[in-house]
Structures are given as C-alpha cells and as structure tokens.
Design brief:
The protein is mostly helical. 71% of the residues lie in helices and 0% in strands. It has one domain. It is globular and about 80 Å long.
Amino acid sequence: MFDAIQSLSATTGFWNLTPGMVFMWAVGLVLIYLAISKQYEPLLLLPIGFGIILANLPLAGLMEPGEGLLWKFYEYGIQWEVIPPLIFLGLGALTDFGPLLAMPSLIFLGAAAQGGVYLTFFIANSLLGFDLMESATIGIIGGADGPTTIFLASKLAPHMLGICAVAAYSYMALVPIIQPPVMKALTSEKERRIRMKKGRKVKRLEKLLFPIIATFVIVLIVPASAPLISMFMVGNLFRESNVVERLTKTSQEELLNIATIFLGLPVGATMNAENFLQWKVIFVFVLGLCAFILSTAVGVCIAKVMNLFRKNKINPLLGAAGVSAVPMAARVVHKVGQEADKKNYLLMYAMGPNVAGVIGTVIAAGIFLTLLQ
C-alpha cells in the first residue's frame, strides 16, 4: 500500500518541484503584479508572466518540443516568423508618417538613436564575453522595440528570447523614468526651450507613396528586414488608402490583439528555470539598460550636432524620441520640453523621429541577421 501511494505521489507535480521552478513562479507573479498594479506594458507583461509560470509547472509538458501546447505556439508563431510580422502589420496600421514626411531631416534622429544598439553590441562581445549572436540580441534591446527584439532573438539566440523580451518591454514601460535624467544632463534649459517651426503640409499622395517606396528601398538595401518592414508598410498602406476600412480596423484591433496573446505566452514560456537562472541574465538586464540609455544619449547628441549646421534649430530633446517606444518616447520629450516652457508643444514633432526609430531598429536587426546568420 505504501509503495502504491509513493508511486502515485511520484506522478504529481509536487513530487517533482525544484527550488528553481518556485523561484520562476515568483518572477512570473512579479511581472503579473507590475502589469496589473503598475500598468507596465500590461498587454505583453501579463501573458509573459503567466507563460513563465506555465513553463515551470513540473510534468505539465506545455513546452515539450513537438507536443506541448505552448511549444506549438512558439514553433509555428515565432520560429516560423508569423507572429512578430503580424504585430508589425497592426503597428503599421496605427502609424502616421505625416510628422516625419513634414520634416524629413528628423529621420536622422531615428537612425542616430540606434547608436546605443551598436555600442552595446561591441561592449557585450568585447568586454563581457557574449558571443556575436548573443551580443546582437542584447544590443537590439536599445532600440526599445519588443517585437523586433523577439524576432531577432528567435533567430540568433533562442535561449535568450524570454530574457531579452522581458528586458525590452520592462525598459519600454520605464521610458518616463529612464529618459528624462539623460535628456536633462545633455541639454541646457535654453536648448530645451527651443520651439520648432511648423513643418510643411503633407499631401495625401505622399502618404500613399511613402510605404511603397520605403519598402522597395529598405528591402533592397537590407533584404533580411523584409518580414517586418513589409508588414509594417502594408499595414500603413491600409491606413492611408482609405478604401479598406475593414482591413485597417482588423489590423489595428482584432488581429493585433490576437497576435499579442500568441506572442506573450510562448515568449514567457521560454523562461524556464534552466535558461533563466544563470549569471548571464543579470548582465543582459544591465546591458539592456545601458543600450537604452546610450540610444537616448546618442540621439540627443546627434540633434545638437545637426544644429551646428542648421539655420532653423531643432530642439535636441527630439533626439531622445528616436528610440522605437511609440508613442511613449514622444510623450516624454513633450513633457520634458514643457517643463522648460509650458507653451512649447513638441509632441507632433517628436513623433517624426519616433516612427523613424521603428524603421531604424528593424534595419539594425536586418543588418545583424545579414552579417551573423
């Protein structure tokens, strides 16, 4: 009888629990708490947090290769490059390129903000011993673009997918805390008071042509960026065409929401105790923060350099909006600018480099894939 009871208990999850699994439950619960109580990127951190818990339930087999439910989400959705491009389809349908087209020179700020991505790549590889693929995956966190981070990690460093995704979305949620001190340290109050001159009026034809031309140019230059950039631009074309309202609405709402669910759960499920409880994890979060700070700083500094050659000065705070955290980074720029001058309205101008940053991060990911895959 005793042997039978012992044999039965051995088939339960309680018998197979490990301290590492319990610790990962705590990590998942913390993310769920932050998503619900603090509203830190709840659309992603909530399913990611629950996915972490599910992946660390003993004997559940949800991430069993080839059989587990969450493994199928991961394999068909992420490894097969389905879910991240669908996220970009929805983002494209939500994006207005008008502010960027009104002042095309702001695209340089979106490109400049990727400096943190490349600097962190070299730091991770040269100083901390991460291999090239891991370093690229860590560096892309500096672009503050969750889907791009997930897309790149799934190809170059799948074992770091969950860690890098959590870092990326955590820092995106902390934009209002991380960016202002960097912005203020690198600019004077006089610079923060600079008022932008109104950009030119953008014609509807320009908005229609931009996603088509941008797709040709970017994909021809960096073919590896095609899965993300093509979906981003077709979503934007839906929006600007004004003839496919149903497709636009579906891309913006239902499809984007469904894709978000099927992205968050398997990403969290990659964070089992074996992958997460390593010394490298600490460095990933530290380097991710450094990447984000460096991206903000490089963007601001390049804006100041541009002013050396411009008659009509741009507010250097706009450089901080070059990261891909749309529209949070633009809102932070607007808020910091109004602290110096309450009548200084920077939000619409900041959206220019903000959407340019999305493109810049995708191009950076494409370059890494081209060179390292």
